[in-house]
Amino acid sequence: MRRFRVDSTVIVLAILVLTLVVGAILVGTVGRNFLSPGNIRDILTGMSVLGLVAIGQTLVILGASLDLSVTYVISLSSLLAATIMNGSPANIPAAVAITVLVCAGIGLVNGLIVTVLKVNGFIATLGVGLILQGILNTNFEGSAGKVPWEFQLIGATGVGPVPVSTIIMIVLAVAIWWLLNRTRTGAHLYAVGGDPEIARLSGVRTRPPLITAHVLCSVFAGLAGLLLASRLGVGSPTVGQQGGYALLSIAAVVLGGTLLLGGRGSIWGAIGGVAILAVVDNVMSVMQVNPFLKDVVRGVVIVAAVAVYSRRAVVRRRPRFGAGGTRTGGDDAAKAADADMAAAASELAEKSAAAEGGRA
């Protein structure tokens, strides 16, 4: 019997709605309004940084890779930007441009190690992350630089209850959605993540899409670092590690329905996963839950959501051979045709023998 496949984005939306309803009920029990403008602003603010990292992480996971260096890229970018700005608004364009270029260079190194040297993405980005950590620990003992007030407005202002940082994240998510669904690079990335050998045999150059994904992943981590610098007013060598953005971004992407094996997933699913984590964190903060219990709840939510994905109904493919296979009528029809096939083969053999005799 044919069963219908439910899209993962629909599932994550349903989980998000359920999380919002349960969160509103729980927050209401302590006399707070979950849907107040201030609380909505807090949730959206919490989504901004993790959302940027998750967008980049989605790209590399779609290509069947990972990036564990994002936490150190975030810290490095916050320090680099704050140091170059040094409190001067005139230095903002140069600081942003240099930070983005450095982060893109780190992503390029990750991509080349993964594609050219054939090192597993987990190991490659872990190694690059450790190198960055050594650089940070060697050159910085604490916060450095100063972010001018004009740049701090990005992390402190909003349009109504919606922070400017969240608007930037959504705009960038739309851009990446367009890249994945309307360009050849996006199609090739899905193909490489699904099966690199089949993609190669189909004429797809397997290296460029994955390198592009790693470059963009590091760039988005750098943008997250810039956003954190605008909120803190300084650069910090530990801001990325303290946020745990590498594992949280992977968790958000998986929570959004993207397969860790690559080839299937969406940006909007990842944003939905980020929203679920932000709502859960907000509810626990309002209810003053023990901070250590937050990780337990996060883990339960992630495992439960992935369990839902793994048990969802899928379209059953007909077997290529055997009962109900690709042949019309299945094996019964094939067996019924055996006699006709044998007669045709015998007739062909007789004609061939007659032809040979005529030549003789």
Q: How would you portray this structure in words?
A:
The chain is globular. Residues 313-331 have low confidence and may be disordered. It folds into 2 domains: 8-311, ABC transporter involved in vitamin B12 uptake, BtuC; 331-359. Helix content is 73%, strand content 1%. The longest helix has 26 residues, at 37-62. A two-stranded antiparallel sheet has the order 1-2. The protein is an all-alpha fold and 360 residues long. The protein is built from 16 helices and 2 strands.
What are the SSEs and their pairings?
Blueprint: H1 8-28, H2 37-62, H3 70-85, H4 92-115, H5 121-139, H6 149-156, E1 158-159, E2 162-163, H7 164-182, H8 184-194, H9 196-201, H10 207-232, H11 239-243, H12 245-255, H13 267-286, H14 291-311, H15 330-336, H16 338-359
Antiparallel strand pairs: 1-2
Helix pairs in contact: 1-13, 2-7, 2-10, 2-12, 2-13, 3-4, 3-5, 3-10, 4-5, 4-10, 6-10, 7-8, 8-10, 12-13, 12-14, 13-14
